[in-house]
């Protein structure tokens, strides 16, 4: 088969479409013939040599894919050859085939095609696990989403609105904020010219955000705590703004707030399977009914993954960028 390889870390030009050995499904795994994958910021870090796959995972980038089941490994039940699926991966999505633990497979939701389904696993699992399973966002509460026009952000807006929450978002252009508004965002904050702490306070009559989904990390740490409501929950899922920051513990104590930080890639298989099962139960019906949908900026041939990476490097996209098998 062919896959995107990274002979040497570097810029987008480091991604090389090359012939590699076919994967073989192990015990409890399913072999998927890939139709499409989607680009995530973790892929950019892997390309740069900053985020290696966990032990035993595919060395090729790609944290999600869609396709058809090509073979079943020993001990797998509940799936059949030919099933149309999408999958959460620890790696290997930028390839013609990938072996996936069966617990990380999802059926393609009603109303979507195989390509669209490739945009779902990573964002739905990330948002549902952090915003709902960990931070316990409830109806009537306020969620602040940093990077509202990203793949994660566009899914977080829709899921939060679907459960009856109020949503504030940050983004850097009017075009991106307008799109967030189309998805249902209530409070639109241009982080280049507005202070999100003050904007959230004004929008909540001084109370603050009950939950913050943060992709920035160190840069926003103290300001996020300032923006939290009493008993607020800050969920950190990225470090685009750096990895080391100072925290005002007194402010955190006065808010009686909680800070969590999670990633999906390195979690044990049983934890990933539990998240995937929760997404199938709670999110898939919303997608099948049309209340929630993947947001796809464009499709790029998988062999030209460098072009897709440049889009993310430049933040020149809204939603997800798909890689489609040639």
Please give a structural write-up.
The structure is a single chain. The model has no long low-confidence stretch (mean pLDDT 96). Strands 3, 4, 5, 6, 7, 14 and 15 form a seven-stranded mixed β-sheet that branches. The chain is globular and about 55 Å long. With 326 residues, the chain is an alpha/beta fold. The chain is built from eleven helices and 15 strands. The longest helix is centred in the middle third of the chain and has 14 residues. 50% of the residues are buried.
What can be said about this structure in brief?
By secondary structure, the protein is α/β, with parallel strands linked by helices.
């Amino acid at each position: 088969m062919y896959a995107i390889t990274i002979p040497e870390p570097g810029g987008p030009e480091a991604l090389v479409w090359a012939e590699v050995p076919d994967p073989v499904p192990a015990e409890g795994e399913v072999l998927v013939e890939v139709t499409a994958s989607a680009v995530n910021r973790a892929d950019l870090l892997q390309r740069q040599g900053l985020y290696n796959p966990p032990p035993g995972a595919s060395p090729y980038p790609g944290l999600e894919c869609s396709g058809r089941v090509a073979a079943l490994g020993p001990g797998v039940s509940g799936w059949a050859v030919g099933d149309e699926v999408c999958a959460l991966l620890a790696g290997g999505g930028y390839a013609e085939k990938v072996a996936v633990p069966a617990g990380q497979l999802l059926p393609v939701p009603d109303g979507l095609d195989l390509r669209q389904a490739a945009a779902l696993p990573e964002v739905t699992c990330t948002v549902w696990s952090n915003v709902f399973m960990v931070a316990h966002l409830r109806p009537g509460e306020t969620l602040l989403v940093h990077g509202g026009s990203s793949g994660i952000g566009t899914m977080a807006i829709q899921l939060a609105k679907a459960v009856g929450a109020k949503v504030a978002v940050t983004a850097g252009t009017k075009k991106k904020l307008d799109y967030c508004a189309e998805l249902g965002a209530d409070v639109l904050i241009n982080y280049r010219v507005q202070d999100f702490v003050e904007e959230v306070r004004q929008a909540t009559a001084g109370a603050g955000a009950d939950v913050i989904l943060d992709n920035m990390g160190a840069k926003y740490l103290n300001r996020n705590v300032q923006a939290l409501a009493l008993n607020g929950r800050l969920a950190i899922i990225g470090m685009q703004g750096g990895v080391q920051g100072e925290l005002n513990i007194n402010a955190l104590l006065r808010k009686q707030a909680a800070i969590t930080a999670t990633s999906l890639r390195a979690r044990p298989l049983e934890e990933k399977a539990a998240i995937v099962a929760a997404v199938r139960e709670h999110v898939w019906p919303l997608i099948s009914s049309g209340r929630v949908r993947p947001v796809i900026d464009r499709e790029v041939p998988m062999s030209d993954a460098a072009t897709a990476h440049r889009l993310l490097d430049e933040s020149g996209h809204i939603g997800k960028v798909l890689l489609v098998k040639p």
